[in-house]
Amino acid sequence: MAEIINCETAATMQLRIAASDIPATRSSGIADNSNVRRAFERFGISALLIYTAISILVFARSLLTDFAGSYIGRGTDPANSMWFLVWWPYAIAHRVNPFVTHAIYAPGGMNLAWSTTIPLVSLIMAPITATFGPVVAYNILSIADPALAAWTAFLLCRYISQSYWPALLGGYIFGFSSYMLAQTLGGHLVLTLVFPVPLGVCPRKITG
Predict the structure, then answer these.
(1) Which residues on adjacent β-strands are paired with residue 110?
(2) pLDDT tens for each residue of 22-51
(3) For the purposes of burial, counting CB atoms within 10 Å of the CB of 28, is it exposed (0-12), middle (13-18) or buried (19 or more)?
(4) First to last CA, the chain
(5) What is the pTM assigned to this prediction?
(6) What are phi and psi of 110, to 5 degrees?
């Protein structure tokens, strides 16, 4: 009987030791409280300011004297993006079908379901578009998109590396890649709004 009790006691002790050996897993995801605070600490804010300054120097240094009269990009696509910024607030305010317009290609009009009309961005920027015009709203987005993409990539890189300078470089490589430079200069707002992508990556899967 004593041997049975001793065996049970030994088994219980082994279970307790095994449980204590299991490392505490840290919460995954960038959106937990510690990582949200980290995004807005001095290092996170400094990274965002650095990326914004780089974006202004690269894309908008020649526009600062005429921000409302000139725009970033070349070709006809920037004008299309500006028109889309105006169209969605207008369509909703006037209760017209936002997917079909007769304001262009009259009298037949155009089916906008075939176009990249950036509806969510248009509605978010509606106050700026209404106050300062579509050129200003477009320029702000063209500057903000690379900076935000670089910043969210910085947050992900810092989460993984736990180091500021490598994360700063990683954010720069993502936010100011050849893809982002080409699409920003092409006026393709729908293709430069990639800042949610790093936030959608699960750090637990990356770190194993």
Answers:
(1) 101
(2) 444 444 444 455 555 555 688 889 999 999
(3) middle
(4) 47
(5) 0.77
(6) -145, 140
